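ping. complex inputs:
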Amino acid sequence: MRNSLLRNSAAALLFAAVIAPAIAETPEEKGFAIAARADRTDRGFTDSRVEMKMVLRNAAGQESNRTLALNTLEIPDEQVGDKTLIVFESPADIDGTALLSHAKILDADDQWLYLPALKRIKRISSVNKSGPFVGSEFAFEDFTALELNKYTYKYLREEPCGDMTCDVVERKPRYEHSGYTRQVAWTDQRDFQVRKVDFYDRRGDLLKTLEQKDYRQYNDKFWRAHLLAMTNHKTKKSTDLVFGEFAFKTGLRDRDFVKNTLKRTR
Amino acid sequence: MRPIKLLAQAFRLPPLCPLLGEREGPAKREGEGIFQLRRSSPHPALSPRRGETRLVFSSLWWVVLIAAFLAGPAVAGEVRVSGFAASELRWFPQSPQFQGQFSGAEPSLLLSPEIRYRSKDRDTSAVFIPFLRLSGRDDTRTHADIREAYVATRKGDWDLLVGLNKVFWGVAESRHLVNIINQTDAIEDIDEEDKLGQPMINLGVQKDWGRVDLYVLPGFRERLFPRSEGRLRAGLIVDDDLARFESGAGNKHVDFAARYSHYIGDWDLGVSVFHGLSREARLLPNATGTALAPRYDKITQLGVDVQYTLDAWLWKFEGIVREGHGDSFAAMVGGVEYTFYQVADSDADIGVLSEIHLDGRDETRAPPTPFDHDLFLGARLALNDVDDTQALAGAVIDAEDGTLSFFLEAERRIGDSWKIEAEARLLGNVDDKNVLAPFKRDSFFNFRLSRFF
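pong. complex structure:
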């Protein structure tokens, strides 16, 4: 009697722990849930401003620097992307050059480029997702395709990452013109932040690895990596993005992300 | 109005514009401008330009005054100095067509610092950008200008800018048809991309339904023309002293402009209107037939510019209707740009461009244009490398007489603060009746090395 109860309980426990989730949650669902949890830790940041330095290194180790400012406006609707404004300060010849993006989920993003020498605002094609961003190892899509619904997900495994444990999830771009067939992202189980991403090119080969380091928390809620290191395994070139202090809820509004504001960034 | 007038008297400021109710004081004599860099010449046709530079610097006083007012409560802010210095070599391989023109190469030095102030709340800014070219060969091209000197502030959806500024309207690449606010600095280059600073009061409002800009443009800037020794001029020299304006106020005429611009999905749209003195001059021989007199007509121009962005295609159209040079006429430039991204698995992009020009003006009564019936074909290359290497090449072909004008512009950065640029402008198969006929021996190459700071 006791034995059978024990056996039944054990069976029930086993069912609850292993089989039920397996029925309720496919690897795709689990992958999406992990990505969504990471995405939602960021919900409510409203807007942010940050200055950053971009360090480009070629295979021989020669460095070239850029400084830029990034303003972001959160669009709470997950079916619409955020708005970003990037303004270059150096090299000096591109001082004041600015790029405004209105991210979409599956449609082409809206992008405008401002050329300060001519004081000209140009609407540009956003097909160029996989092209290098200002000569760096970051592609345009590495900046703009951070929206949850731009990918389909699949849970792969769990493994240690540093002193934490990470969920390893594969994601495939749903949007057109991506340079990647798939990406594999490591998200930690403590703070739910993405620590590392492998990018696979159109042939399916490992192309680049992004490491996101130096996470700091703002307002007791929002995590931001302050070092993004992208390494290209084929060219042996690398680019570091080193972020300064982030400022949140700075009062940026929709009006600060319309094309005419490009002329008033400095 | 009155306090401003009083202030002006108290500080002995020159009038901002006739708008403020000031009458023009006793005219200063030629060459009295603060920045009069053009050397005088014994030949009357070569005398320095009339009070135009003075006008620009008068407006400057107002900018300084307004800046002082605004800076009062908002001194905390950031001042940045940047800009560039460059040396340039322009080389004409062919001997000149007209007597007095130089031949061979012309070295120049250029300087254009930029001083920018921005208040801590980022709502108010002030900008000062002078420009100077010293030519070692051709006094024609030695000139200075204030490209920008303004104070701008914003509150809510509204913004206001007072001072000298440069405004660009339009979408096309080979002709900037609707772009009319600024006078072209025609002695810098013949591509009409260099502009003189225009005194203006610009009030703008941004709403969900688009943006509206209103411009009051006091102080007309005359076009600068090459003189005796300069290349890229007509046989007769243009004498600025003979300039005539279809307005009682002469070059103090106040022009007005307005523009509505917006974007809806993949469409970017602009509609503009301008009323004032034409930036283009008709050049009429004087009584003795020894010089050309610029004649600036009063015009009204309606303009439309549209771009449709679809995948890698950009569809562009600019159209104007202009009244004031004889019969009203219409003109358009329209075409496409298609970009092949990451060509052959490299990082490079190649764009191909084609644009059509049509212009219905009567060239006996309107300023002539080389773009009356032409086809533009071009290609753009961007290597997307660390040095931002890029090039643009193209040709404009006159569909009626076959005159061909070809250009190539290429540039790349060297290190973090240097840039090298090369430019070629070549004319071929020039028909003797084409507007470009006086330039037919003026194909040139230009090399520029710039240091940015």
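The mean pLDDT of chain B is 86.
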